[in-house]
Write a structure and sequence with these properties.
mainly beta, seven-stranded antiparallel sheet, 0% helix
């Protein structure tokens, strides 16, 4: 995966909604990025104190598609809030090597509309530390059917929508709808 000017095949996944390069993180106390307590290269798809409850299908899953020269990878999060276990979260982080530096985060269920989450990317390029924020503690809110596209080449985050009725868990991407 490529973020900013950095490429890594060592991706660490956290149940707290983080993807990090080369070094893992168990940080659950979110805040605005950049954060020196996190690895330099961090994607906060929905950084909050989340967990996978035992005896459920909750967890973090991944799928690699495409060809060896043009792979894509999707990380699927099905989790609950540690503080409010009746609040559920379902989102996907999708990276396609045909669009290096771009990551899309699709939101299906957002138990609290992001009121306690950070959604952002931090990393480095030739100019030094870079941060692309989208949301911090619910500002702005995130809703089911929304997708945030991070472009680390341009340093932008944009909000769009998608038809989440076209999705069945563990079958991304769905090609017919």
């Amino acid at each position: 995966m490529k973020l900013f000017d950095n490429i890594s095949s060592n991706i660490f996944v956290s149940t707290n909604g983080l993807l990090t390069f080369d070094t893992g993180s168990t940080s659950y106390a979110n805040g605005a990025l950049p954060q020196s307590s996190l690895p330099t290269m961090t994607l906060a798809g929905y950084w909050e104190d989340l967990l996978a409850e035992g005896g459920t299908q909750q967890g973090v899953y991944y799928q690699v598609d495409g060809t060896s020269s043009q792979p894509s990878v999707t990380f699927e999060y099905l989790l609950a809030s540690l503080g409010f276990q009746d609040q559920y979260y379902h989102f996907l982080v999708n990276y396609q090597s045909s669009n290096p530096g771009m990551i899309k985060v699709y939101y299906f269920v957002t138990g609290d509309s992001g009121s306690g989450a950070t959604i952002a990317i931090q990393g480095t390029n030739a100019s030094g530390q870079q941060t692309i924020p989208y949301a911090n503690n619910g500002s702005p809110a995130i809703a089911p059917g929304q997708v945030v596209t991070f472009d680390t080449n341009l340093g932008t985050a944009s909000l769009g929508t998608f038809n989440n009725a076209c999705y069945t868990p563990n079958s991304w991407p769905k090609t017919t709808c």
